[in-house]
Amino acid sequence: MNPSFGQTRSDIRRNHALLTPESHEWITQPDWPGAELAFLISPDMGAKFAMGLVRAVEDLSEIAPAAAGVARFIFVLGGEVRFPGNPALGPEGYAFLPPQEETTLSASKGTSFVLFEWHFLARGDLPAPVFGSVAEIEGTPLRGDDWLMVQKLLPTEAGFDAEFNIMNFHPGASLAYVETHFMEHGLLMLDGGGVYRLDDQWYPVGAGDAIWMGPHVPQWFGALGRDSSRYLIYKNYNRGPLDKR
């Protein structure tokens, strides 16, 4: 999916956005020495969370935790990410770090990962950090459809205010209906491709594409081609529409 000179498939709209690799702007940040970041989704566009890609151009050492009140989720795309006292995370390893978690991050040169951050909405005690790997998570059929398997990466307990899932589509599988709801999403295509409907737009999507879906935007995905399709998806969870975020 290489666009012609001067063109991009990225499309930013009032209630959704498609962010494609050819339009990524890689920058440096003081809190991430040795890394380059491409922020794909941010509150500036209307989202209540931030999502970006991070690549280590040098070894990363003891990267500081997120700001006060901010939760962080990391999903490794390549290389190795390390947190003190925990096994190293390889490709498709992930970490959820609640607010006030003092764990630092280190990574080898060449490592890349997805970074999500959001203002955590606590209910009772803060949950503990979660470290895991997609390979350890059993998939379950979505609404009984075994051509569409969901792997839930975080516990569903009420203390968690976010959900991160891997959606696995058999070739030709699709969501059962066009969804509309008050939750918003951040999504990264991992494998395969298909067509995503967002509002009244229809977007061809493939591996590396990212999507923001705002609250109540009509949304639907159908997988195309001979290979299975997968994406990582975030949504605010376990909190009602009147809970302030």
From TrEMBL:
Q: Which GO terms describe its molecular function?
A: ureidoglycine aminohydrolase activity
The residues forming a coiled coil are: none
What's one Pfam family the UniProt record gives for this protein? Cupin_2
Keyword Hydrolase recorded: yes
InterPro entries in alphabetical order:
Cupin_2 (IPR013096), RmlC-like_jellyroll (IPR014710), RmlC_Cupin_sf (IPR011051), UGHY (IPR017627), UGlyAH_cupin_C (IPR044697)
SUPFAM superfamilies (alphabetical)? RmlC-like cupins
User: Which domain of life, per UniProt?
Assistant: Bacteria
Its keywords, alphabetically, are:
Hydrolase
Residue ranges of domain Cupin type-2 in the record? 166-232
Q: Which Gene3D superfamilies does its entry note?
A: Jelly Rolls (2.60.120.10)
Q: Which NCBIfam families match?
A: ura-cupin
User: Which protein is depicted?
Assistant: (S)-ureidoglycine aminohydrolase
What organism is listed for this UniProt entry? Celeribacter neptunius
